[in-house]
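Database export, one record per block. Field names are fixed; values are copied verbatim from the stored entry.
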Amino acid sequence: MPVSAIITKKLLDSYYVKYNKHLSSKDPVWKLNKVKTKSDKEVLAFIISCYCYGNITQINNFISKVLEFTSLNVSEFILNYNRSSKEAGLDFRYRFNSTQDFFDLIHAISVILKKYGSLKNLFRKYYDKNDENVINALNGFTPEIRHIAKGSKSFEYLVPLVSRKSTCKRLLLFLRWMVRKDKVDTGLWSKEIYTSKLIMPVDTHVYKIARKYKIVERKSLDIKFATELTEKLKKFDPVDPVKYDFALCHLGVDKENLNY
């Protein structure tokens, strides 16, 4: 059966409309509503994306702990963070990431805020609007963060490298939240970064749907799969193909037991 007979623009648009509303799912993105400033939302979004793996309840509980720790003033807390004074006796373990990994991430963000003023400015350092997509920008953005953090091997999982062939789902999710603007995504970077340059954040649910309905023939779950899927979705919306992230995810997932 032809793909167009199963996955159509009308079907995807209907799912987009269904989930493009406040609290339409258990997605951790709604934690951004807990903070007020643009800087807080940007920094919190990056932290959430780094830890956006595993059971969604675990993710949300961990981010609630971060919000309590920073008293909801996330960027100010991190900007004033002293690496040596706030870590003793605290437990920010999350699955196979240690408490040290968390504080290495906080340190890296703190250095970036002091040097560049924002994560956006660091990303823009490597972003070229003439590039086909955001891969070249990520190839500069994430290595610099890892260099600043000087973290362990487990820390490196939080901030993956595109060059390692990973799908970089969590980094691409962060960019979706920052660049796209609707009732879910913040659009904080929308004036500087084009939505057409984004790449679909591919998790196992999106992967299974794309394979099941033969949207993508590639079997390997890697960045090439994500870019190929994005190119196929541009047939439905060439300017904003990543708008269909929720649509594809919820075509293939039980919303009551969502895992990332």
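Remark 1: The chain is about 50% helix and 0% strand.
Remark 2: The first helix runs from residue 9 to 19.
End of record.
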